[in-house]
Amino acid sequence: MKAVVITKKGGPQVLQVQEKPDLQPKAGEILVDVKFAGINFADIMVRMGLYEGAPPLPTTVGYEVSGYVAALGEGVEGPALGTPVLAMTRFFGQASQVVVPAANVLTLPEGMPLEEAAALPVTYLTAYHMLIYLGNLRKGERVLVHGAAGGVGSAAVQLCKWKGAEIFGTASAHKHDKLREEGVHYCIDYRSQDYAKEVMKLTHGKGVHHVLDPLGGKDLKKGYELLAPTGRLYSFGASTIVTGLKFNLFSVVKGLLSFPRFHAMKLMRANRGVFGVNLGELWDDADILRGQMDELLKLYEEGQIKPVVDSIFTFDQASEAHLHIQNRKNVGKVLLTP
């Protein structure tokens, strides 16, 4: 089989496609022939040596795939061989074969393209977990979505639209027309505008009920200050500490030192909440994530959500895919294919 390997810490050039021994499922596992594998900003952080908990290098990453059932391990009764499925992987997904616990394999709704299936798990689970599972998003609430054109951002926009929320999205100006088509009510160019001032102006000083923050650092404090009473801030990334294409110790330390601390008494007085979200730490908790995936597939069947696929790169183009995401060119999900 083939796998995209992060050979060492560094820029996109450290990615290599390597031949690996074919896999066999153990008891309770399913072997999937991969047709598409998702790629996320977390993969870039692993490549740069910034992702705590990643396997030691050299390694293969990837948290979601779609393809066909190739073999069943002992004790697994289905799905049948050849069934199209999506699978949630704990790393190692960017390969032409994966073996995963049977509980992490889901049969696709009828007619769902494999491309859309691979674009669903990480981004939609992250958005659903924040807004619905933790946040109990209600009709009419105001939501600030950073990176509204990205993978998690576009998923969040669709969930907000489903719930009837008012959506404020930050993105580069050339992405605004697409965001308005997707249902974003207020588009803010983070490059030329102070998004905090714009949000307060647009809400007449009331602020928002939800802030989805993949940025980290000082932006967390800005997001917290934008919260209305009962507002919730979700911290699910630290992209602001990623500067350049390689690990930069000065930028990392500076970024980490800029993270705010939240005092319990102040949170109580302000009636605000702060959630930290890392789905990787929940990947083995099937009761939480499998139930949410079932709900997302139901929403897909009902036409409430539809994954946006920005582009598809071959394994040999993995370095180009990393650059595409790191340069923030994507509108929606980026995929890899063997």
Rg estimate, integer Å: 20 Å
Class per helix and strand makeup = alpha/beta
Shape: globular
Query: How much helical structure, as a percent, in the residues?
Result: 25-40%
Distance between the termini: 9 Å
What's the helix-strand series?
Answer: EEEHEEEEHHEHEHEHEHEHHEHEHE
How many distinct beta strands? 15
Low-confidence runs: none
Q: What portion of residues belong to β-strands?
A: 25-35%
Main sheet attributes: strand count, strand direction, barrel closure: 7 strands, mixed
**Average of per-residue pLDDT values:** 94
The number of helical segments is 11
Describe this structure in words.
This protein has eleven helices and 15 strands. By secondary structure, it is an alpha/beta fold. Helix 3 (121-134) crosses helix 4 and helix 3 (121-134) packs across helix 10. The longest helix is centred in the last third of the chain and has 16 residues, at 286-301.
